[in-house]
Amino acid sequence: MIASITLSDCVYQIDLSQPIDISIPLVNTESNPIAWYLEKPDISPVEMGDWIGKVSEGNSSTNFNNITFNPHAHGTHTECLGHITKAFYSVNDSLKEFFFLGQLVTIEPELQTNGDFVITLEQVENAWIEQGQKAIVFRTLPNPEGKKSAKYSHTNPPYLSWEVCVFLRAKGVDHLLVDLPSVDKEKDEGKLLAHKAFWNVTNVSQLNDDARLNATITEMIYVANDIEDGFYFLNLQIASFVNDASPSKPVLYQLIK
């Protein structure tokens, strides 16, 4: 199926049969990525007495698994501002549109004097190309395939400067995607400056009127090295979880002149 989009007065085609999946699948092995000090997810058959919900065990006609996981810790996930507010907000209510023009940007986080690696405002300003994009996808360097099974706990991964999120908010970016476990520093004493800046949340107890209820942050993606920087058509898919976050499947499509 072919669709089209207009960009800078040029019409581009989108071949929907050529998806570029930038999500990391959830598996019940040690190859699953893990953050936030948890163990790997569990996918295992239901057991009721001597009945096991697994066809290969011989006494079930179906495979019938329970799955235990944490969306923030166990792979690609999309979250809304309910992640940081006292009041409950669901990502299932926040994300109501699923197709966006997005810019893919590759950045090598800069070493700071405190030893942290940070995506800075200057880097993002230099990479930004104004096209009215509603989504931005950050691929960080180095970019080994080991990111897909990384164990992030206690490693102080790179993160975004809060000024970056103010910039993106001002540019009208509603959907921020990163190949990191968080847009914020792993251990930041609960400040969450980048999250708050992107969602424009000034008080987690009493939501301000201009907080960004429909904006989302997607973390723990993986963009392969052979995918070129530039503009793509983004399909951001989530499972219908009534929760602050959901496992998700962001998919890019190339724009063809």
Automatic annotation (TrEMBL):
Alphabetically, which GO biological process terms does the record hold?
L-tryptophan catabolic process to kynurenine
**Which organism is the protein's source?**
Myroides phaeus
Q: Which GO terms describe its molecular function?
A: arylformamidase activity
Lineage of the species this protein comes from: Bacteria, Pseudomonadati, Bacteroidota, Flavobacteriia, Flavobacteriales
Check the record and name the SUPFAM superfamilies matching this protein.
Answer: Putative cyclase
Family matches, as Pfam families:
Cyclase
Name of this chain's protein: Kynurenine formamidase
